[in-house]
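Q: what does this look like with FE2/S2 (inorganic) cluster bound?
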Amino acid sequence: MPTVLVRSSLSNEADRQFDVSEGKILFDELENLGFILPHGCLAGSCGSCRIIVIKGAQNLSLLGAVETDTVESIVKNYCETNRSDLVANKSIRLSCRAKVLGDVTISILK
Ligand code: FES
């Protein structure tokens, strides 16, 4: 059973770790645990549910074409420089599209 570790981006919040069934959508699992992520489309096109993958990017399902386009747009519009390495390294993912296939460590973008 894969483990998801959510690293807190706030000093007064603890990291949280939980087990998920393989193949589950990350957004759904986070929501079930009380993580309320912004969301709009739940289809990979609005980018609201973005997360940072700290470790285990290879343990998430592959990016589809829509998610790739959205992530590239996020990087282009919101990162200080065009950080194509964030796309190439799958550091930014959309939780509504990512299926958990193995252990992963993430941070939720506030
Ligand atoms: S909710 Fe729109 S991309 Fe995930």
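Residues 39-42, 44-49, 94, 96 surround FE2/S2 (inorganic) cluster (CB under 6 Å). DSSP finds three helices and five strands in the chain.
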